[in-house]
Write a structure and sequence with these properties.
homodimer, 5 helices, 10 strands
């Protein structure tokens, strides 16, 4: 996706060989028009599969999934990381380890909003070690729903998440795949 | 906003006199098409003021703000509640007490994404006691930015947040204002 690659090159900030910050347009400040193009692109890439619902995880997946939802014309559900008094007691639940936050946390979705008739498309901003995606896939399994695929804005091609999902026959569509950063430079696979 | 009121009546779940759950379309599962109409309505209501940026708070404000951002054609920033390794060290920061979570937490925005030239529109799903909005207004002040207004999807007319903001001459636009729930019934002010 050319527009996205240009934005990453222009505004992405690299630290060391592995950290890419894109918080000027993707996960702290958001560029809604870019996200609209990203939503369209996901819709194009998953146009050959049935999708009845989009699933993501708070917080940085929400904007991407919500705007993509406009193009798929389906409800969007975001898994919650923090227990809230307002969350239903009956939830699908699993644990995810976050390297960014340095801890394990529960992720939960109310049983009202995932069910066995659903065809679920998982969307997220980054795919690195794959823990968040694997956790969301686990929630899809608990609900006996069908996994339609996983759509990722930026895959870190040098970490294992992409390989794990592809080896498990997940229909993974990454809009960009970045290589390890040498001398602060951002390059893409293919 | 008629469509929104109908949705609240149809899908809102009331507990006691004060709790309204709208997690089937607003803050756990999201109805993107409704949020699109909400975004348009905010744009209409704030069309007479200058807005250069939308500010909200994770997690449930993000979808609303992101889709509204498409209609305002401005960047959207969401304040973060949890410290992350990926957040800049230089932030605007304040504390907010959450009645829903039962605790006080820091909210932060990187100094990169709010500045003195900005005209900030704050958007959020609920206005109850006003703590989150007041916290976001404090971040706007720290940045020496101008507050363009506050847009709320559902104001609880029986809690003090709305009064506090109006008494402080904030340009507050609530798309709906609900009364205290008697016998589980949802009614609106005006």
């Amino acid at each position: 996706m050319k527009l996205l690659k240009e934005k990453i090159i222009k505004e992405g900030r690299v630290t060391g060989e592995e950290i890419l910050k894109v918080d000027s347009f993707l996960n702290h400040q958001i560029d809604p028009l870019l996200l609209n193009e990203i939503g369209k692109e996901f819709q194009k890439r998953f146009s050959n599969v049935k999708v009845t619902k989009i699933l993501t995880i708070e917080a940085s997946g929400i904007a991407i999934a919500a705007i993509a939802g406009l193009h798929f014309n389906v409800p969007v559900v975001f898994a919650k990381k923090v227990a809230s008094k307002n969350l239903d007691k009956e939830t699908y639940k699993t644990q995810v380890y976050s390297f960014t936050k340095g801890k394990t946390y529960d992720i939960q979705v109310s049983k009202r909003y995932l069910n066995s008739e659903d065809y679920i498309l998982i969307l997220d901003d980054f795919l690195a070690n794959g823990r968040a995606s694997i956790g969301l896939i686990e929630l899809v399994k608990q609900a006996n729903a069908t996994l339609a695929g996983v759509g990722i804005v930026i895959e870190k091609g040098f970490q294992e998440g992409g390989e794990i999902l592809r080896n498990n026959n997940v229909n993974l569509q990454s809009l960009t795949v970045v290589n390890k950063f040498k001398n602060g430079e951002i390059t893409f696979k293919n």
